[in-house]
Design goal:
CATH class: Alpha Beta
CATH superfamily: Aldolase class I
Number of domains: 1
Number of strands: 11
Order of helices and strands: EEEHEHEHHEEEEHEE
Helix content: 10-25%
Strand order of the largest sheet: 3-1-2-4-5-6-9
Largest sheet: 7 strands, mixed
CATH architecture: Alpha-Beta Barrel
Shape: globular
Number of helices: 5
Mean pLDDT: 91
């Protein structure tokens, strides 16, 4: 199998607002769904942003696995890079015991109809599915809007654990840049 290259928007190697425990959060670059009111529109463009080989990303995650509970994949839209996503999920499952949470704008039944959909779902513990709807803003329990559904695809987590996830967090990187993450990031005035 060829080593796929993923176009990513960002990586946050330690997050507590993207699922239970300390998580390695990855945002994919590119989304054609164009959900009105999306709070992460910078992820929509498909132009190359941060190109990372799946093998290198799996190696990095595996090396940091002892300090992690899991990996959270978001976007953009991860399923619009389905070949690389599937290879990433396979690598995570083969090399770690980490849990996987996947955010997608697609509904579960739409994912099941995609060629790579069933094997992708087989590599995921929790799927948060559905297009964001700003008029139904919820911003808690890992759902941005109330129309989104949570699918517990394994018995790794219960709904109570997901509900306890903080809605937002702030990190300051080495350059002093503030990174806000989570399903309910606060509005920052400049």
């Amino acid at each position: 199998m060829n080593d796929e290259v993923l176009n990513l928007h960002a990586i946050l190697p330690r997050s507590r607002a993207n699922g239970p425990g300390v998580r390695f959060a990855i945002w994919f670059q590119g989304c054609a769904l164009n959900c009105a009111g999306c709070f992460n529109p910078a992820t929509h463009a498909v132009a190359p942003n941060m190109l990372v080989s799946v093998r290198d990303l799996v190696d990095r995650i595996a090396s940091e696995a002892p300090e992690l509970e899991g990996v959270t994949l978001s976007g953009g839209e991860p399923l619009q890079q389905s070949g690389g996503l599937l290879q990433l999920l396979t690598g995570i499952r083969s090399n770690t015991r980490l849990s996987v949470i996947l955010f997608s704008g697609y509904e579960k039944d739409e994912i099941e109809r995609l060629p790579d959909g069933p094997p992708i779902l087989a590599g995921v513990d929790v799927l948060i599915a559905g297009r964001y709807d700003a008029s139904l803003r919820l911003s808690r329990g890992l759902r941005g809007s109330s129309n989104q559904t949570i699918h517990l695809l394994t018995d790794r987590y219960g709904m109570e654990e997901l509900e306890r996830t903080p809605t937002a967090e702030a990190h300051i990187d080495r350059s002093g840049k503030i990174v806000i993450s989570g399903v309910g990031p606060p509005e920052i005035s400049e």
